[in-house]
Amino acid sequence: MNRLNALHAVRGSCRALMVPVLLLWAVAGLGQTPNRAAVASANPLASEAGIEVLEQGGNAFDAAIAVSAALGVVEPYGSGLGGGGFFLLHRASDGLEVFVDGRETAPGAAFADMYLDEAGDPVPGASRNGPLAAGIPGLPAALVHLAENYGRLPLADSLAPAIRYAEEGFPAYEELVRRLSRQARSLSEGARAVFAPGGEVPAAGELLRQPDLAATMRTLAREGRDGFYRGAVADTLVDGVQGGGGIWSAEDLLNYRVVEREPLTGRYHDVDITTAPPPSAGGVALINMFNMLSGYDLASADRVTRVHLLTEIMRRAFRDRGPYLGDPDFIDVPLDRLTHPYYAAGQRASLRIDRATPSDSLPGVQPAGSFGGPQTSHFSVLDRDGNMVAATQTINFGFGSGFMAPGTGVLLNNEMDDFSMKPGQPNGYQLLSAEANSIQPGKRMLSSMTPTILRTEDGVALLGSPGGSQIITIVFLASLAWVEGADAATMASNPRFHHQYFPDRLMFEPDAISAEEEEALRGLGHNLARSRQLRGNGNLQIVTWDRRSGEVDAASDPRVVGEPRFSSP
Ligand code: GLY
User: Fold this and answer.
1) What is the Cα–Cα distance from 66 to 314, expressed in whole angstroms?
2) Confidence band (pLDDT; 50, 70, 90) for 373?
3) Please, which of 93, 161, 274, 352 could form a disulfide with 453 given CB 3.0 to 4.6 Å?
4) Which residue range forms the structural domain that includes residue 547?
5) C-beta atoms surrounding 243 within 10 Å
6) What is the 240 CA–ligand 1 centroid distance (Å)?
7) Is 376 in the active site?
8) Same structural domain for residues 327 and 473?
9) Number of continuous H segments (helices) and E segments (strands) in the chain
């Protein structure tokens, strides 16, 4: 295998050329327009909501509002109005690419040690359960922002399918029933009344109605931002949170702002990568991993060398998460360095092709890592004009904090757990913390959500996934599959493996690594762990567009719930 193909100079000039090339690509309209619109999401009803709005004359941005809000209704364990999200947009008319950051923020009364006891130890569950665990939601503001700045339809039209699902109900499905059976008891009284009325979890097929949530969405539809962040809904939210022991104030809601950020960009072979900037850690790691990979000839690697190499690359990318990454409005993130090809070359210098590098032998950084869950939700939308949205949204752990502010129908996030509680102390995802991601009033907590757009001269792929820190390696492996020619279904179904520096463990889905390969990888010094958890964690939602033929395809991860939908051609 070719160890170090020095591509640095080439990559440097590629970066400089990328912006004009992208613009040319977008404006010149090279190739065929999409032969149909597509939505891939974690729930068929949410995908249908997107298509419904497209067929009413909406664009991809209107459809994104519809899908996002519908997911909050029909997949209440994954995301919703009580949480936040990232929306990566591409506008076909002028090539604009923008990252709409609707991440939650810490309340004004939050402080660094708020989840520690007098001895300085984290209070078990304090950052995960109940309203004290909830950041100020960003999703409602993001939806209003999309409608006001990018959509074609009134917000009310785009929210209509979600309001209908909440008002009229939708049939409970196996996955929801399974999760409710496990978790309903730990939900707040108000949430239990909605999701387990009369103390009974609904059976599969039984209609689940959420009239309070429908009313809140109607107010949002009618009043826009003020419908959630000011007035009756805001007052009810603040009263509910404070009554339950939380620290939100009316000012926190009034002060919440969506931030538009420049997406991160990179290039691997002939593929331009557009992805999430901080406060996501995902895009930085994704670009860094592809930069490292650029120095190797992966095509000529045997399977064991390939897995070894990708594992070592994952290990090195994750090493940097703890010390360097946090909310860029609060700390200086060394983005240029972390995403620079020279930096990747330095990382490659320690990488041996014949030996795993123990994580604790990589110097100068604090360990960081997190395990994810199947919570959080990604969706991808492409419309007939070539507008695109890759969006990932969350309330963090399943059903978030479990707390529903009485009368609102809004299940609140427990995103405060994504902050660092205490240096060296793992959080609920086994995140070992760092100062860069400490709690401060108004600060956004670090995320792993990685909505991504890949593109060559001939094609496009929109993708993303839930899965905590595994989001990053799931998106990395799926992106690599696309680079290597895989279609949407193969990208979504490919078996996965994952390494995140700490713990020093190569996790893999049972069918990702054969027994012989496992033995060979152990021989290289890897600590392998077959993982069922890894199997359940991701939920890739992918849309692809072949620009030579105009053909549009889409796929949802076959491991979990989710189905794509298409407009008629
Ligand atoms: N709450 C999961 C994430 O933002 O990565």
Assistant:
1) 35
2) low
3) 274
4) 262-352+449-560
5) 11
6) 24
7) yes
8) yes
9) 20, 18
